[in-house]
Structures are given as structure tokens and as C-alpha cells.
Design brief:
Elements: E1 4-11, H1 14-28, E2 32-39, H2 53-65, E3 72-74, H3 86-100, E4 104-108, H4 115-127, E5 132-136, E6 149-153, H5 155-165, H6 179-192, E7 197-205
Parallel strand pairs: 1-2, 1-4, 2-3, 4-5
Antiparallel strand pairs: 5-7, 6-7
Length: 209
């Protein structure tokens, strides 16, 4: 359905958490996926890990999903400071739009309460006015969520997502990295459309060509 897919991840790992199964499916089907991480969160790396650990982990994780190394773009915006950097982030997204020309953009949902995620979503809408935009789900940040689009997945896609997330050794203490949680959420979304597994998305903008 989509040939050129852009994932906007405020921080390394958000993209895999929000739509890792769908990315695996799109790549399996021949889609070209581009992954943009706006911050590697060096200020919030857990004690005992090097500052650049998340850069190394996102490279491993996206490789497992099948994303080409040249399609992984890493930026250095400071974690939790996106509101102050809003204009710079918008300028970056406009440059990315001109370079990649995506068919669809995945970004944090409209219901995400994290300040960096909110800015990413808002600037996505400004930069990608002519693209279909879907908001991905991260329940730990959401008060509510609109399940207005679904991607049907097979177990192998969820297993690929779990394998990718296992690359984040620095984040494994977070409960939402637990493989049982990842699979349970996919099962719940699958139940909503009468399949075994799915990922759900908010339709922020839908363009039919």
C-alpha cells in the first residue's frame, strides 16, 4: 500500500515501540522505510552505560527490522528540550521531506503527553501537509487513543519487533520493553479487527491519490 515510509521517532526506540511490527511487514512487502531519530537522549542514559549507547542500539535494532543503514538518520536534539527547539526541528523535517518524499509518515499520536513527542507530532503536521500521517500508539504516554487505523500482522512480524527491541540493553528495565507486554498489546489490537495480531494507529491525515 505504501512504497516510501517515513518513521519520525522523537527519541531512539520510539519508532520500534510504536510501529515496529508494521515496519517489518512493510519491508517484507518491498517497502522502503526511512527512520529518523531526533534525539539519542544522552542526558537520560541510565547509569553505567556510555552516553552514546542509544546510537549503537538503534543501529542494531533497525538493522534487525530490515531498515537500510543509509535510511537511518540520527539527530542531536536535546532530550526534553524540544519545545524550545521547535523551529529548528521544523526546519529539519522540511529538509527531510524534500529529500525523502514519503507516501506516509508515522509520528507520535495527538494524545501523547511527552513534551518531545508533542512537538514532533505538531511539527510533522506543519512539514508534511501533503502526506498521509498516522499517529502511533505508546500507552504509557497516552491518556486515551483513537484506534482509527490498523495494520494486520503475523506472529513473525511481532517476533521481529521484539527482537529489535531486545537490542536496547540500556532500556530493558522499562516495563513496556517486556516481550509479554508487546505481544499482549498486539493481541488486543488484533482482537479489535478479528485477527491474531495488529498494531493500531490514529489517522491524523489521510490522503487518497
Amino acid at each position: 500500500m505504501f512504497e516510501r515510509i517515513l518513521v519520525l521517532s522523537p527519541h531512539t526506540d520510539d519508532g520500534e515501540l510504536g510501529c515496529g511490527g508494521s515496519l517489518a511487514k512493510f519491508i517484507e512487502g518491498g517497502g522502503e522505510v526511512f527512520y529518523v531519530a531526533l534525539s539519542s537522549c544522552e542526558k537520560s542514559v541510565p547509569e553505567g552505560f556510555p552516553e552514546d549507547i542509544l546510537k549503537k542500539e538503534v543501529k542494531k535494532a533497525t538493522k534487525i527490522l530490515g531498515i537500510k543503514r543509509e535510511n537511518l538518520l540520527l539527530f542531536e536534539y536535546e532530550v526534553r528540550e524540544f519545545p524550545r527547539l521547535r523551529q529548528e526541528i521544523l526546519d529539519t523535517l522540511i529538509e527531510i521531506r524534500a529529500e525523502i518524499k514519503p507516501d506516509v509518515v508515522f509520528t507520535p499520536s495527538s494524545y501523547d503527553t511527552h513534551q518531545d513527542h508533542k512537538v514532533t507530532r505538531d511539527e510533522t503536521l506543519r512539514a508534511f501537509k501533503k502526506c498521509t500521517v498516522l499517529g502511533y500508539e505508546q500507552p504509557w504516554n497516552n491518556i486515551t487513543f483513537d484506534t482509527t487505523a490498523f495494520v494486520r500482522l503475523e506472529e513473525r512480524h511481532i517476533e521481529k519487533k521484539i527482537e529489535a527491541l531486545s537490542c536496547y540493553e540500556s532500556q530493558k528495565a522499562r516495563p513496556y520493553f517486556n516481550s509479554s507486554f508487546i505481544k499482549s498489546l498486539a493481541r488486543m489490537r488484533g482482537v479489535q479487527i478479528d485477527v491474531e495480531y495488529a498494531e493500531a494507529f490514529e489517522v491524523i491525515r489521510w490522503i487518497i491519490h
